[in-house]
TrEMBL record:
CDD domains (UniProt xref): CCL_ACL-C
Domain of life: Archaea
Example GO biological process: carbohydrate metabolic process
InterPro entries named in the record: Citrate_synth-like_lrg_a-sub, Citrate_synth-like_sm_a-sub, Citrate_synthase, Citrate_synthase_sf
UniProt KW Transferase keyword: yes
Cellular component terms per the entry's GO annotation: cytosol
Source organism of the structure: Methanobrevibacter cuticularis
NADP as UniProt keyword: no
Pfam families given in the database record: Citrate_synt
Stated family: Belongs to the citrate synthase family.
Annotated protein name in UniProt: Citrate synthase
Keywords, comma-separated and alphabetical: Acyltransferase, Transferase
Length: 272
């Protein structure tokens, strides 16, 4: 064996134990992200373009970059109504630092809160396999099947309807921008076809999750990316609420009083 040469087995073991990444290369005084110098990225890319590059591996076109930025902004906040915001504020009220309160908010995202984006993307993408070849009449047939199946099984279609809005104002704004940028693909067409049928039958419109799910699907994002992109958009809102809670509200604030709590368990049990 040549001096300094390792046995093949040990060499393979060392190779397998090393952390692999295709995202950012770190060298002394040098950072390369997705093949680009971070010095160039800092001076030439917007935040939304950088996020897109990290997630997709390529810099988006100007039109797609603008639309992706609109999507991130549309996710930014929905007041104190969501469980994530209330959780973040409650944790902050206990005296926990920002990162802990923020973690509490993030942990509140699940199938019932923020999960509709991924479900909508799964529905749109699984319903249209060859999106480049499909015609509008076929999209309408698919939409009809989805709506009829939903009504027959008494199940909601993810991305449609809202607890607070008859017409989600964010949905209206984001779709207007998609039309303005001429970025209406097959998934947006499917979402609009579903909405038209739901409006006829149940007076239900698409919400921001459904609109953005269609837009992100047309951009080529996978369903599992949906929740992550929502989180990226919502983080500033959560931080703003945490800061407001800490700076403007009393410590250890009660979100409900004892008079608001109804006990319905056993009463007057006696231990023998």
């Amino acid at each position: 064996m040549v001096l300094g040469e390792k046995p093949l087995k040990n060499a393979l073991k060392d190779s397998e134990s090393k952390l692999r990444t295709g995202i950012t290369k770190v060298e002394p005084n040098k950072l390369i992200t997705r093949g680009y110098s971070q010095e160039d990225l800092i001076s030439k890319l917007s935040y939304s373009e950088m996020v897109y590059l990290l997630l997709k591996g390529e810099i988006p076109s100007k039109k797609v970059a603008k639309m992706f930025n609109h999507v991130l902004v549309s996710f930014c906040d929905h007041g104190v109504t969501p469980p994530s915001t209330q959780t973040a504020r409650l944790v902050a009220s206990s005296g926990s630092p920002l990162n802990v309160a923020l973690s509490g908010g993030l942990l509140s995202f699940g199938k019932n809160h923020a999960g509709a984006i991924e479900k909508s993307m799964e529905l749109f993408q699984s319903s249209i396999e060859n999106s480049e070849d499909i015609e509008d009449n076929e999209i309408n047939k698919i939409a009809s099947f989805i709506v009829e199946n939903s009504l027959n099984n008494k199940k909601k279609i993810p991305g449609f309807g809202h607890r607070y809005h008859n017409e989600d104002p964010r949905r209206t704004a984001i779709l207007k921008l998609a039309f303005k940028e001429e970025l209406i693909g097959t998934h947006i067409k499917l979402a609009l076809a579903i909405e038209n049928l739901l409006m006829e039958k149940k007076n239900v419109k698409m919400n921001i999750d459904g609109a953005n799910a269609a837009i992100l699907s047309d951009m080529g994002f996978a369903p599992q990316d949906g929740t992550g992109i929502f989180i990226i958009g919502r983080l500033p809102g959560l931080i703003a609420h945490i800061n407001e809670e800490v700076n403007e509200e009393a410590e250890f604030r009660k979100f409900c009083d004892i008079d608001d709590i109804f006990y319905h368990g056993n009463k007057n049990r006696i231990l023998d």
